[in-house]
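in:
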C-alpha cells in the first residue's frame, strides 16, 4: 500500500506531460446514471485523465458547483444528488475553461502552479501565465 501523498505526487507528474494533441480540444461526454438519490459519473477517471488534472481537484470543484456531497469510488464519482447529464457536462466545460484551457492560444496543454500564493495557469504551448480567479 503506497502512501496517499506519493500517489498524488505521481498523478501530478503524469499531468505535466505535454502531448502534441490536435488543435481542437474535446472533453469526453459524461457517462452517468442516477441510482436512488445519487448520480454516478462512471467515466470520471477517463475525463480527469483527458483534462490532465487530479481527479480529487475536479471532484471538489463539481461538489461545490453542484452543491452536492460526493466521493470517488474506483474511477467513478458518486454525487449525492440527482443530476441530468447536461448540467454535469456544463460544469466540466466550466472547469476546463477555468483550469485547463489557455485564454491566449486556446490550447489545453497547461499546468497549474503557485506563485507567491497565487494560483497561476501556465500554458506549456505558448508560455502565457494567467492567474486563476476561482477559489475553493
Ligand atoms: Zn497558450
Amino acid at each position: 500500500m503506497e502512501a496517499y501523498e506519493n500517489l498524488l505526487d505521481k498523478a501530478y507528474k503524469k499531468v505535466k506531460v505535454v502531448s502534441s494533441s490536435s488543435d481542437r480540444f474535446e472533453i469526453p461526454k459524461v457517462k452517468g446514471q442516477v441510482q436512488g438519490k445519487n448520480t454516478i459519473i462512471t467515466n470520471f477517471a477517463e475525463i480527469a485523465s483527458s483534462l490532465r488534472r487530479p481527479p480529487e481537484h475536479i471532484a471538489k470543484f463539481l461538489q461545490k458547483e453542484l452543491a452536492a456531497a460526493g466521493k470517488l469510488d474506483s474511477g467513478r464519482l458518486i454525487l449525492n444528488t440527482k443530476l441530468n447529464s447536461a448540467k454535469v457536462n456544463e460544469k466540466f466545460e466550466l472547469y476546463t475553461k477555468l483550469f485547463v484551457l489557455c485564454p491566449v492560444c486556446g490550447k489545453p496543454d497547461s499546468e497549474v502552479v503557485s506563485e507567491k500564493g497565487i494560483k497561476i495557469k501556465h500554458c506549456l504551448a505558448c508560455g502565457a501565465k494567467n492567474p486563476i480567479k476561482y477559489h475553493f
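note: The beta strands are 32-35, 38-41, 70-73, 76-79, 110-115, 118-123, 129-131.
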